[in-house]
Design brief:
mainly alpha; globular; about 200 residues
């Protein structure tokens, strides 16, 4: 997941918020949540920095201290959706076709691949391979909300494109075990983070 998101946003410059020494008034999570709310209500085209700033009661230029570009904003929005989905939604075209989470992909990207191809080209991990980052996907075999097949497809495509990618499918884990420290799957999740961190 970490490697995937890093690859998605790699074209964005160093985050401006990371260089700021001031105490932030807003958070990236708030900005992403506001952007998603606008997209859900009015479509992805309504999501602009000016509109987000107005919803947050901030100046438009102020937001650029947190989000440097539209590409970075899109990555943050996708990160928020993935955090809700828990398992890696690494194939957004397939997720759209399956209507995962009742239209979450449509809310984020403004429609299907035929309607918003540029948005999919920017945000869909499957469209971005090779990512040039080390990846390790962890998916529960009993996940009924995000089919493990999505991770298998992405891993195969990333490997074919030359990426270093691994996939661990935990046989007794479901969708929510990935973030539950008391689940039997948790040690494997922690081990996967450590494995990605290794040089």
């Amino acid at each position: 997941m970490i490697g995937t998101l890093y690859g998605m946003a790699r074209q964005a410059p160093q985050l401006l918020w990371a260089r700021s020494t001031r105490r932030p008034k807003h958070t990236r999570e708030q900005i992403a949540a506001t952007a998603l709310a606008i997209a859900d209500a009015e479509g992805i085209e309504a999501v602009t920095m000016r509109r987000i700033a107005a919803e947050l009661g901030a100046g438009t230029m102020t937001l650029y201290h947190y989000v440097a570009s539209k590409a970075e904003l899109t990555a943050l929005m996708l990160d928020a959706i993935m955090a809700e989905q828990l398992a890696p939604v690494a194939d957004l075209r397939a997720a759209y076709q399956l209507d995962l989470d009742g239209g979450a992909v449509t809310a984020l990207l403004g429609g299907g691949p035929d309607v918003a191809p540029d948005h999919y080209a920017l945000a869909d991990p499957m469209s971005l391979v090779p990512l040039g980052a080390r990846l390790l996907l962890v998916h529960g075999a009993r996940d009924l909300l995000v089919p493990p097949e999505l991770s298998h497809r992405f891993a195969a495509a990333a490997r074919a494109a030359g990426d270093d990618v691994g996939l661990i499918e935990l046989p007794d884990a479901d969708h929510y075990d990935m973030i539950d420290p008391e689940s039997p799957a948790w040690p494997a999740v922690v081990q996967a983070f450590h494995a990605v961190e290794q040089p």
